[in-house]
Protein backbone atom coordinates (compact mmCIF):
# COMPACT_ATOMS: atom_id res chain seq x y z
CA UNK A 1 0.00 0.00 0.00
CA UNK A 2 1.19 3.51 -0.77
CA UNK A 3 2.08 5.86 2.01
CA UNK A 4 -1.13 7.03 3.64
CA UNK A 5 -2.32 10.10 5.50
CA UNK A 6 -4.39 9.20 8.58
CA UNK A 7 -6.53 11.83 10.29
CA UNK A 8 -7.69 11.78 13.89
CA UNK A 9 -10.77 13.49 12.55
CA UNK A 10 -12.98 14.05 15.60
CA UNK A 11 -11.17 17.22 16.66
CA UNK A 12 -9.45 18.15 13.39
CA UNK A 13 -10.37 21.70 12.28
CA UNK A 14 -12.52 21.89 9.15
CA UNK A 15 -9.97 24.13 7.41
CA UNK A 16 -7.29 21.44 7.88
CA UNK A 17 -9.60 18.75 6.48
CA UNK A 18 -10.20 20.96 3.45
CA UNK A 19 -6.44 21.33 2.89
CA UNK A 20 -6.08 17.55 3.18
CA UNK A 21 -8.94 16.88 0.74
CA UNK A 22 -7.37 19.18 -1.86
CA UNK A 23 -3.92 17.65 -1.38
CA UNK A 24 -5.29 14.10 -1.69
CA UNK A 25 -7.22 15.02 -4.81
CA UNK A 26 -4.14 16.66 -6.36
CA UNK A 27 -1.61 13.94 -5.46
CA UNK A 28 -3.83 10.80 -5.29
CA UNK A 29 -2.21 9.91 -1.94
CA UNK A 30 -4.55 7.76 0.18
CA UNK A 31 -6.31 9.77 2.89
CA UNK A 32 -8.23 8.03 5.68
CA UNK A 33 -10.22 9.97 8.24
CA UNK A 34 -11.10 8.15 11.45
CA UNK A 35 -13.79 9.39 13.85
CA UNK A 36 -16.49 8.13 16.15
CA UNK A 37 -19.19 10.23 14.51
CA UNK A 38 -20.21 10.36 10.87
CA UNK A 39 -18.70 12.98 8.59
CA UNK A 40 -18.89 13.57 4.88
CA UNK A 41 -15.80 13.23 2.75
CA UNK A 42 -15.33 13.84 -0.97
CA UNK A 43 -16.37 10.93 -3.18
CA UNK A 44 -12.89 10.10 -4.43
CA UNK A 45 -11.35 6.64 -4.62
CA UNK A 46 -8.32 7.60 -2.50
CA UNK A 47 -10.32 9.29 0.31
CA UNK A 48 -11.98 7.08 2.90
CA UNK A 49 -13.86 7.57 6.15
CA UNK A 50 -13.79 5.01 8.95
CA UNK A 51 -16.36 5.42 11.66
CA UNK A 52 -15.40 3.65 14.87
CA UNK A 53 -17.35 3.06 18.05
CA UNK A 54 -17.59 5.85 20.59
CA UNK A 55 -15.30 5.51 23.53
CA UNK A 56 -12.04 6.63 25.04
CA UNK A 57 -9.17 6.31 22.51
CA UNK A 58 -11.10 3.98 20.14
CA UNK A 59 -10.23 6.10 17.07
CA UNK A 60 -6.65 6.56 18.28
CA UNK A 61 -6.18 2.83 18.78
CA UNK A 62 -7.60 2.13 15.32
CA UNK A 63 -5.11 4.52 13.74
CA UNK A 64 -2.19 3.01 15.67
CA UNK A 65 -3.21 -0.50 14.61
CA UNK A 66 -3.44 0.40 10.92
CA UNK A 67 -0.74 3.00 10.24
CA UNK A 68 2.56 1.89 8.72
CA UNK A 69 6.12 3.25 8.82
CA UNK A 70 6.47 6.55 6.93
CA UNK A 71 2.70 7.17 6.94
CA UNK A 72 1.58 10.61 8.15
CA UNK A 73 -0.87 10.92 11.05
CA UNK A 74 -2.65 14.23 11.59
CA UNK A 75 -3.47 14.69 15.26
CA UNK A 76 -3.33 17.14 18.14
CA UNK A 77 -3.40 14.16 20.52
CA UNK A 78 0.11 13.90 21.95
CA UNK A 79 -0.19 10.32 23.28
CA UNK A 80 -1.43 9.21 19.84
CA UNK A 81 1.47 11.04 18.21
CA UNK A 82 3.88 9.23 20.52
CA UNK A 83 2.42 5.83 19.64
CA UNK A 84 2.60 6.39 15.88
CA UNK A 85 6.16 7.68 16.17
CA UNK A 86 7.00 4.42 17.96
CA UNK A 87 5.66 2.64 14.84
CA UNK A 88 8.00 4.76 12.66
CA UNK A 89 5.15 6.83 11.23
CA UNK A 90 5.18 10.64 11.30
CA UNK A 91 2.82 12.78 13.34
CA UNK A 92 1.80 16.33 12.46
CA UNK A 93 -0.52 18.49 14.49
CA UNK A 94 -3.07 20.79 12.82
CA UNK A 95 -0.98 23.84 13.74
CA UNK A 96 1.93 22.55 11.67
CA UNK A 97 4.17 21.16 14.39
CA UNK A 98 5.86 17.94 13.36
CA UNK A 99 6.21 15.62 16.33
CA UNK A 100 9.51 13.74 16.30
CA UNK A 101 11.40 11.26 18.44
CA UNK A 102 13.42 14.21 19.75
CA UNK A 103 10.45 16.36 20.87
CA UNK A 104 7.59 13.97 21.69
CA UNK A 105 8.76 13.03 25.21
CA UNK A 106 8.97 16.71 26.15
CA UNK A 107 5.44 17.27 24.75
CA UNK A 108 4.14 14.28 26.73
CA UNK A 109 5.74 15.58 29.93
CA UNK A 110 4.26 19.06 29.41
CA UNK A 111 0.84 17.58 28.66
CA UNK A 112 0.95 15.50 31.84
CA UNK A 113 2.11 18.49 33.88
CA UNK A 114 -0.72 20.69 32.54
CA UNK A 115 -3.23 17.91 33.21
CA UNK A 116 -2.00 17.69 36.81
CA UNK A 117 -2.34 21.47 37.16
CA UNK A 118 -5.91 21.42 35.82
CA UNK A 119 -6.93 18.50 38.05
CA UNK A 120 -5.70 20.43 41.08
CA UNK A 121 -8.01 23.33 40.16
CA UNK A 122 -5.53 25.70 38.53
CA UNK A 123 -6.92 27.45 35.47
CA UNK A 124 -4.43 26.94 32.65
CA UNK A 125 -6.41 28.39 29.75
CA UNK A 126 -6.75 26.78 26.37
CA UNK A 127 -4.75 26.98 23.18
CA UNK A 128 -4.64 30.18 21.16
CA UNK A 129 -7.26 30.59 18.45
CA UNK A 130 -6.42 28.77 15.21
CA UNK A 131 -4.74 31.33 12.95
CA UNK A 132 -3.77 31.84 9.33
CA UNK A 133 -0.16 31.33 10.44
CA UNK A 134 -1.11 27.90 11.88
CA UNK A 135 -2.89 26.99 8.66
CA UNK A 136 0.14 27.99 6.58
CA UNK A 137 2.56 26.10 8.84
CA UNK A 138 0.41 22.98 8.47
CA UNK A 139 0.20 23.32 4.69
CA UNK A 140 3.99 23.75 4.45
CA UNK A 141 4.71 20.62 6.53
CA UNK A 142 2.13 18.64 4.56
CA UNK A 143 3.72 19.71 1.28
CA UNK A 144 7.16 18.60 2.52
CA UNK A 145 5.79 15.15 3.36
CA UNK A 146 3.87 14.91 0.08
CA UNK A 147 6.97 15.67 -1.98
CA UNK A 148 8.76 12.73 -0.34
CA UNK A 149 5.71 10.42 -0.45
CA UNK A 150 4.84 11.05 -4.09
CA UNK A 151 8.46 10.69 -5.27
CA UNK A 152 8.83 7.22 -3.64
UniProtKB/TrEMBL annotation:
Pfam families: DUF188 (PF02639). Signal peptide: none annotated. InterPro entries: UPF0178 (IPR003791). Belongs to the UPF0178 family. NCBIfam families: PRK00124.1. This is UPF0178 protein FE785_05110. It comes from Thiomicrorhabdus sediminis. The lineage of its organism: Bacteria, Pseudomonadati, Pseudomonadota, Gammaproteobacteria, Thiotrichales.
Amino acid sequence: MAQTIWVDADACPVVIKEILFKAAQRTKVPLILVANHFMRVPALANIQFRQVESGFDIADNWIVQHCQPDDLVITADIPLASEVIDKKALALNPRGELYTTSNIKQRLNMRDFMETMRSSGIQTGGPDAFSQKDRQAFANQLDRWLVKAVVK
